[in-house]
Structures are given as C-alpha cells and as structure tokens.
Amino acid sequence: MKTVLITGASRGIGAACAEKFSLEGFDVIINYNRSEKAALELADKLHCRALRADVSDARQVENMFNAIEKVDILVCNAGISDGGKMFCDTTFQDWARIFSVNLGGTVNCIKYALPHMVHEKWGRIVTISSMWGISGASCESVYSSSKAAVIGLTKSLAQELGPSGITVNCIAPGVIDTDMNACYDEATMKELAMAAPLCRTGSPRDVGEAVFFLANQEFITGQVLGVDGGFLL
Ligand code: NAP
User: Fold this and answer.
1) Is 112 marked active-site?
2) Most CB contacts within 10 A, which of 62, 111, 203, 211?
3) Whose CA is nearest to atom 41 of ligand 1?
C-alpha cells in the first residue's frame, strides 16, 4: 500500500487531500503544526496517523520522517500568508517567516522524502503554489514570491528527478474557501468569486481532487495545474 504524507493537513486544503487519499485506500499520514485537536480528530475519523512538525524547522521534519517507515507520495501543502501588505510595509521578518514555511517547508520535506523514493526508483511529489505565484498580486509580494519560488523548485526537481522515476508537479489554486481567506469580508469574497468564469470560489475538495489526479499520473511531470475556476490572470 502506498503511503502519502500531506503537510498542513489539520484543516483546509490539506485536510481535503487527506480525505480523498483515505477514501481511495491509501495509507495517509497527516502532518500538522498548531491545530492539534483538529488534526487528531481527522486522523481518528480517517483511521490514520497524525504527526506534529513545524515544516519550516528542518530538525522537526527530520524527527517526523524518523517516525515514518516510508513516504511514497508527498504533498507539500503547508503554507501561510500575511493577509496582504504594501511592499514598503513588509519587514525582513515577514520575508523570512513566509519563505521559511512556504518554500523552506517544501524543501525540508522533499529532502527527507527523497532517499526512499530514489531507492525505490518511484515517487510522487505534489507541491502547492498559488495563482498569485504565477501572476503576482498587488500587496502580496512576499506570498506571491514564495509561491513563484515553489514553481521554480517544482520544475527544477522534475528535470532532476525524472530519471529516478519521481514525478514532481504543482497545483496553483485560485481562491479557495478556507481559513486563509477569513480575512476577506463577504463582499470581497463575492467579488473574487465573480472574477472567475465559473462564478464561484473553490472548495478544498476541488483542490484535493486535482492533487490526487497528479499524484496518480505516470507521464506528467514539471507541470503547474491551475485549480482556479478559470480566474483570468
Ligand atoms: P489554511 O486553511 O490556513 O491551512 C493551512 C494549513 O497549513 C494548516 O493545516 C496549518 O497547520 C498548516 N501549516 C501552516 N504553517 C505550518 C507549519 N509551519 N508547519 C506545518 N503545517 C503548517 O490554508 P489553506 O487555504 O488550506 O492552504 C493550504 C495551501 O494552499 C497553502 O500552501 C496555501 O498557500 C495554498 N493556497 C491556498 C489558497 C486559498 O485560497 N485558500 C489559494 C492558493 C494557494 P496548523 O493549523 O496545524 O498549524
């Protein structure tokens, strides 16, 4: 049975990914950081394991991997945003903090997942960027840059790891109904929904389905799949 580790799976998109892989019969491991109660409840519901690690901390990630026999499929989903700021108002701490989770967390987890995948000559890695990582977003320079970096990492690793039988693909979600967008009021969410040709925001499940799809392809690598209702970038 293939084992899938999903980072940031205590809630939102990561939790939806965990539900999908579990439903399809995979051995699921939920990673979480602060939301222990939610993570343990989800693990209980899905009859799977939940492991705490701050993905930005390489030592915690190493400990998490030491507690896991193997990871065949890695979903690097854990991410944070800062709710938006003018570039001039961003601090060096903002840049360090957001990059350490969004890019650093992805790097840390891939580093520790790779030895087993390379040994097996088989592995699937799905990273989570954002449509803002493709287009850039005003007042989201830190977040957008970190998500653009995730795309660069994905494409580079797809080149490097293909000969080892490992695919590396990326999902770029549009506006998805999760806590990450709780900072927006109802009117703004409606406006964002109407900016997409499908006239709605996405659900975590929409993204979970796409992650599952990419993780189960044999001849697709280095791709960035938009799950954004056709949002015109
Ligand atoms: P969310 O509801 O805020 O959930 C974020 C998840 O990431 C939580 O499970 C959280 O775990 C985890 N996390 C945050 N920092 C972590 C850390 N240092 N170590 C381990 N886990 C950490 O966000 P979401 O909307 O589901 O976002 C999931 C991913 O999709 C993110 O990478 C985000 O950038 C991306 N995305 C979201 C949207 C959107 O519109 N929602 C759009 C584009 C891209 P704890 O609560 O346990 O700390």
Assistant:
1) no
2) 211
3) 176
84: left (phi over 0), alpha (psi -120 to 50) or beta: left
Query: How many CB atoms sit inside 10 A of residue 137's CB?
Result: 16
Does the beta carbon of 130 lie inside 6 Å of ligand 1?
Answer: yes
Print pLDDT tens along the chain (233 aa).
999 999 999 999 999 999 999 999 999 999 999 999 999 999 999 999 999 999 999 999 999 999 999 999 999 999 999 889 999 999 999 999 999 999 999 999 999 999 999 999 999 999 999 999 999 999 999 999 999 999 999 999 999 999 999 999 999 999 999 999 999 999 999 999 999 999 999 999 999 999 999 999 999 999 999 999 999 77
* Distance (Å, whole) CA 3 – CA 70: 7
Is there a contact between 5 and 113 (Cβ–Cβ < 8 Å)?
Answer: yes
